[in-house]
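W.,

You were right to be curious about this one. When I first looked at the sequence I had no strong expectations either way, so I just let the prediction run and decided to look at it fresh. Below is the sequence, 166 residues in total, followed by the output.
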Amino acid sequence: MSPTLEEVARLAGVSRSTVSRVINNHANVRPEVRERLWQVAREVGYQPHAAARSLVTNRTHVIGMVIPEAVTTLFTDPFFPLLLRGATDACNSHQYQLMLSLFTANADQQEIYQRILRNGYLDGTIVASASLDDPLIPDLLRDRISFVCVGRHPYERVHVERRFCG
């Protein structure tokens, strides 16, 4: 079992609130106390409890990637492995987790939207390769869920290919 905030406080000889201020990077802690607390936390292997921390910070440090394509497309289109690698690298470098959601049918999309996107699990969402009429986009806008769209729409591919091919 991971050590608690209270255990770190006891071992460092400070109050629980002091440990909390250090963990949450508040300025009102002397530098020598801050360093001692981080040393104790490292020694005992303390990790902040993600769910508890998200209640205080209103952040989960989880970014969702939604790929509203057939699962087989993910494994046959070379775009998606590159996208996943880039998103994973970016999330890792900013201490975020990447959660991948794949859809197999329209019914799945609404269920996943309700279960994952609307419930506050995610700080933001990456929507990959959405079609222009994808119902997910208006839902995200309506519910004020932060998102970015990446990739090209299928209709745009046809237009670009025609323009460059003749």
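Here's what jumped out at me. The CA atoms of residues 88 and 98 lie 6 Å apart. And, maybe more interesting for your project: The first strand starts at residue 62 and ends at 67.

Coffee later to discuss?

I.
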